[in-house]
Structures are given as C-alpha cells and as structure tokens.
Amino acid sequence: MSLLLEMFTYPFILRAFVVGILVALCAALLGVPLVLKRYSMIGDGLSHVSFGALSIALACGWAPLPVSIPVVVLAALGLLRMTEKSRMGADAAIAVVSASALAIGVVVTSLTTGMTTDVDSFMFGSILAMDRADVTLSVGLCAAVLALYVLFYHRLFAITFDESFARATGVKVGLYNTILSVLTALTIVLGMRMMGAMLISSLVIFPALTAMGLLRSFKGVVLCAAGLSVVCFCAGLTGSYLWGTPVGATVVLVNLAAFLLSRGIMRIKRAS
C-alpha cells in the first residue's frame, strides 16, 4: 500500500495518469465506430506514420509533437481519400502507408541519431517522455476531441451503421468520415508518447471488442468501452510501476485479460 501511495508523489506519474486517462478515453470512444466500420487498423497505420514524422523531427532537432500532428492528420485524410476514390481497399491502403512510413522512420533513424532513448520511447512508449509542455498540449487536444465527439455523436452513429441511409437523410457522410479520421489521428499522436508506435492501436481496438462482447446497444458499447479503457489503463500503469515493466505492453496485457474475460462470460451465457 505504501508503494502505491509513493507512486503518486512523483510528478511524472501524475502527468502520465492525466494524459493517459484522457487518451484512453478518446481512443475507446473512437474505437467503437472504427471497429464497426472495419477501419480499426487505421490506428496501426497512423502510428507508423507518426513514428516516421517523429524520426525526421528528431533528426532535424525539431519538437516532435508539433511536427507529427499535422503530418498524421494529412495521412489520415489521404487514407480516407485513397479508400473512397480508388479501387484499393482500406486494409491495403493502410498496409501501404504503414509499411512505407515505418521504413522511412527506420532509415532516417539509422542514418542520423541511431536508436537513441527518444526513438526507443516513441517505438515502445515511456511515461518519462511526457514533460509539462506535452501535457498541456495533450490535455487541450484531448478535450477538443472529446467535445467534438459528443457534439457529432448522432451523426457518427448514423455513418457507422449505414452510410447510404445517412446520405439519403441529408447527413454529410464525407464530412463526418473526415472528422472521425482527424480525431483518430490526433488521438494516435498523443497516445504514442506513452504507449509507443507498436502498441497504441490496442487502445482503439481492445476496449471496443470487449464492450461488444458484453452489450448490444451502440450507446451501451460506447460507454462500456470508455469505462473499460480507463480502468485498464490505470491498472496497467500501476502494474508497470510496481513490476518495473514497460507501460505500453502492461496496458495491452491488462486489456487482453479483460477481452478474454468478456469472451469467457459470453460462452457461459450461451451455455446457460
């Protein structure tokens, strides 16, 4: 117990909790429509784009987040355009962008700084990577993401289940698909500092899948996913501190445990 209390005396832990809870909440809320639209792997693709942008920023001596955010937003819009205007499917478009961006990041890193502590933290996450400036920017952007999600909730619901019907009722499907992509891009960039490029997509996918196994209504799934994501993040961060394990990997394992538990509950219900 004393070890847990001691944990909250460290400013970097408090910063990690504040930003992590907000990012986990945003990722879970956006994850539900993304999973239902079979577009969930966009998180993985955009995280690799972010890694490429961050590698270039570090090589040039620039601040990583201000460089990465506009690049990832543009990549999200480009992916959306590729899937809408070409014969390339969403999975193929994400694979092309993901592999290309990751390759650029690796080559730039090998030619310039090498695998430094900064690069490693972006690949696999680090709670030590968050400074006050990052926290301020992250809190502001997360608040904007949450506000826009609540504001456009009903329209996002409409385009998630039936774009043709939504378009027929006057909903601007292209606009709201763009908003969903931009919000996802912002969330991915903000979450990379703690979760890392390799693991950030799990915050988008796991809570949504777990909640879908427990509930059936869209609103219920959204609320359940949000709650699960925050609880799993807090448990993962606490476990990471106690056991000395990487934050991103520990959070993913907690989410995996929750997912497997939900599958077990589903099987018990079906059997009874």
Describe the structure.
The chain is mainly α and 272 residues long. It contains 13 helices and no strands. The mean pLDDT is 88.
Strand content: under 5%
What average pLDDT do the residues reach?
88
**What ranges have pLDDT less than 50 throughout 5 or more consecutive residues?**
none
Shape: globular
Q: Any idea what the radius of gyration is? A: 19 Å
| Number of domain modules | 1
N to C succession of SSEs:
HHHHHHHHHHHHH
| CATH topology tier name | ABC transporter involved in vitamin B12 uptake, BtuC
Number of strands: 0
Helix content percent band: over 70%
By helix and strand content, what is the structural category? mainly alpha
Q: In CATH's first tier, which class applies?
A: Mainly Alpha
**Number of helical regions:** 13
**CATH architect. name:** Orthogonal Bundle
CATH superfamily: ABC transporter involved in vitamin B12 uptake, BtuC
Looking at this protein, list some descriptive labels.
272 residues, ABC transporter involved in vitamin B12 uptake, BtuC, 13 helices, mainly alpha, 83% helix
Summarize the structure.
This protein is mostly helical and 272 residues long. It has a single domain (2-271), classed as ABC transporter involved in vitamin B12 uptake, BtuC, CATH 1.10.3470.
How do the strands and helices of this protein lay out in sequence?
Elements: H1 2-7, H2 11-36, H3 42-60, H4 64-85, H5 90-111, H6 117-124, H7 132-151, H8 153-161, H9 163-168, H10 173-195, H11 201-214, H12 218-243, H13 247-271
Helix pairs in contact: 2-7, 2-10, 2-11, 2-12, 3-4, 3-5, 3-6, 3-10, 4-5, 4-10, 6-10, 7-10, 11-12, 11-13, 12-13
